[in-house]
Amino acid sequence: MSVKKFKFVSPGIFIDEIDNSQLPRVPATLGPLVIGRAKRGPALRPIQVNSFSEFVDMFGTPTPGGDVNDPWRGENLSAPMYATYAAQAWLKNNAPLTFVRLLGAEHTAAGSTQAGGAAGWKTANDNSGMNASNGGTYGLFIIASASSGAEHFSSPANTGTLAAIWYVDSGHVRLSGTTTFTGHGSPSGIHGVAEFIPPVGANYEFKVIIAEANNKCDGYGTPVMTATFNFDETSNKYIRKVFNTDPTLVNTDITQGSNIKNYWLGETYERNLENVCGTLSSATATTHAGIILPLGDSTYKPHQMLQGSTATGDGTGASKTGWVFAQDLNNDYVQFKAANMQKLFRFHSLDSGEWNQNNIKISIQDVDYSKNEFSQYGTFTVIIRKMEDNDNRVRVLERFSNVNLNPNDPKYISRVIGDQYMTWDDTERRYTVYGDYRNNSNFVRVEVDEAVGGARVNPLSLPFGFYAPPRYKGFMIFSGSAYTYDIKGDLDNVVELDGHGAAPIQSASFVTGRSTKGAFGQPAVGTSSHGTTHNFPGIPDNEEGVFASLYGGLPGKFTASFVYPTIAFRSSSMEQNVKNAKKAYWGFDSTKYGASATRYEKSNIDLLRAKPGGLNTATSFGGVSDYLDYMWIFSLDELQDMDSRVVYVSGSRFAGTSITAKNTTYKQVLDDGYDRFTLPLYGGFDGVDITEQDPFNNTRALVSSATDTTSYAYNSVKRAIDSIADPEVVEFTLAAMPGITNTTLTEHLINICEDRGDALAIVDLEGGFTASHETTQSIEDRLGSSTTTVTNLRDRQLNTSYGCAYYPWVQIRDTINDNFVWVPPSVIAMGALSFSERKSELWFAPAGFTRGGLTHGAGGIPVIQARERLTADQRDRLYEANINPIATFPAEGIVIFGQKTLQVTQSALDRINVRRLLIYVKKEVSRIAATTLFEPNVQVTWNAFLGKIEPFLASVQARMGLTDWKVILDESTTTPELIDRNIMYAKVFLKPARAIEFIALDFTITNSGAAFED
Predict the structure, then answer these.
(1) Fewest C-beta in 10 Å: which of 145, 374, 723, 887?
(2) pTM (predicted TM-score)
């Protein structure tokens, strides 16, 4: 008993309890590492999970493939994600597991084309010359004669907007209809492109022709599809029901016959269309018109999204919010401009890719000024919300309450949420961590402005507004005289965004032309009169082209401006039928069109997408780029009392009518209870080829000739492997890349495991089954064979005990999705190793009917059948080649019938159970040895080391891992010379227990009079 525990004042008896029966700490369990695709989550870096439910929360459920429900707006779920099943198989019986999710990342030395290793996707043809009318991006712009029905946006008469985009692999898109030319005949060329065509019905109903590349002298191209569509989601003619939205259908390597398409429908902007041009019911053939225009220019093309998921300047490639800025602390409100307010912070997704921007949003709430005389810093709360919720039904994923902007306070926003991120170095092949505070959010990190981090901003500053995502600058079409039309990207005086705090749109447009000046970033001007010949479906060049009159019968002389779509914002406290107006979140509104709408608007997915060439990062705070401007800028300083409700009125502070202007203090709007707003994430990109069902397939993406500079898929997998090379960064005992058979990559994984010396790689081999998403071959040609697999492996001449392989593929039952899925053998091998370790010990052979019986649950996932029913001769050939057969027996079912490593040299280490035993023993002895470092190199220390290691080895022997062992640590090993060199040297001798793989039984038949004792 320690007398230091008690305070002795008055006499008494003092009793303490000392527990000397505590068992030694059980070493932390080390699980496997799995590399592969998943629905969401951190990418290209190892993340450990401790249960299957945690895995699902982080990376999503296993994916069987076959889901093609609007893939453009969804996730690529058309091919199985094998790695997720491997994770499920392991976590059924054991934990933890480390997962590395694959996304597209190009090497810094990669070229700018797909063949040169660039990540991302593109259409087969890009229409860059316009003459061929072949491929590229085609946008449908719609315009009303008067935009009186527009909601929440400044819309002068004859203002139109982009409504839909088609991506064309080969051919073009044009409107079908008739345009009246008063006093003139029809123009020659491709009608329906760069022509105004009226709708054919209500709800913005148009007729479109999808055509092949020009193959006629008139330049039209043979139609492959003619369809009538509208923008009413409840209609069978709804645009996303009528047109193909699956980019993989243009890929003839995986699609065949009548299923092949030459296009897919991309973005559609339903709510924005109603905002700018009026409600669905208001659109008729006499009030609106449409025009098809190609999009992009020679530098930035929406159909060439060749960039990685880690492409942006800060090294993350993740989605982010616009900058959040402070209130106007200047009482002279006539000087107010949102762009001049002090920027404070913004949020970045921790995860690369698109999932976060599609599924979460961020709200700032409970903004409050300081009422503490000892600190001027106010407080606010940050919540991470589900994207599809509404202000009546807020679904909180994370909450960070009462944070502030004081860098010296424990509640400082960066300290509470975290600000660290990692960048990958292609030379050193490792990550570097930046930032001061570890991330406590599972979704985002904070970037604070340098002035905030240096405590150089006014401490009264509070988050009051933010910049919405950028959009392309608009353009205008105008006529100098009848039937002579120009297009230019100069909307200085046409669309005024200054009320939102942004500069007016200036000299740029995102429509394609043939002007020598270009139409993107410079005006593209075209003039023509009747009779000019046209042989392209684009904006006219300097001497040719015509815009038909604006919906039939209108005078030929007119001016029309077009603005690109924006996300919507809350304009009134009454919207979404919020029960308490003070609980309404201002800023970003993710719901459908209409003041009472509460359902999620899916076009937000399209509005928040990354732009080509990294354009989503081109705007700076308060400024504009050559191509982009902000959609809008919101500030609580511009809320205004009006008719028993509060509304957002851009320019109201400048006009002196906002709450803060009329009361000469920013505090009033907070005191009134209007203290919250919501902002979106935008600009994340997966960096993969969306025309592939599996962007990391073996047939095209991971071919044998691929390298890290010629294939982004190869580089991504190699980076994932290299990220786990250092045993001091991540620990694991098994590693697998289910479904990846590229020999260079699988050998690289084996080599990493061997260099570490503490893990066994489970690899899949070439020559087996080929999944349907890899090729258009018939099932007969995709089956593969054990003979081919054996030959391929022998040609590789592998000889290592740090790798193992299995054959053939098996079919599992996905109990979550109620589906049957063919998976590579590494998936089920992972499950069997987990089952064996839980049922017995990890050094027991994970094979046979007891621990390898897949029919009876040893795989962790229900196994239905093997892809190939192996004969005894096939099993023998596989096993001789060190491939572990997955056999099928009539009575016993499906069973793993081998446990060899890929070591050709005969020794104890050519068996999985022995290799796993050695990995385990080396790891645990190393941990024991680590506690001895820097201790005196004397006999007492040696004895202490032996006192730890010997009981451990005895325990392994008692659990049938060893038949015998011996440790020598004395003057014969640690000599005086080694002591002088600060070295302690011990020898550990082990006799591993061998598994019974062959049983020989003699049955002798005797005469009835014979005695067995003889």
Answers:
(1) 374
(2) 0.88
